[in-house]
Amino acid sequence: MKWLWILLMLAYGVPAGLASAAPAPLGTTPEEFEAKLKYQQGKIELGAGLATLNLGPAFRYLDPEQADRVLVDLWGNPPGNKTLGMIFPADVGPAHEGGWGVVITYEEDGYVDDGGAEKIDYTKLLAEMKEDTHKANEERTKEGYETVEIVGWAEPPRYDRASHKLYWAKDLKFGTSPDHTLNYNIRVLGRRGVLVLNAVSGTDQLAGVRKSMQALLPEIEFNQGHRYTDFLPGKDKVAEYGIGALVAGTLAAKAGFFKVLLAGLLAFKKALLLGIAAIGAFLRKLFKKEDPASQAPYSGG
Question: Higher-confidence residue: 265 or 82?
Answer without folding.
Answer: 82
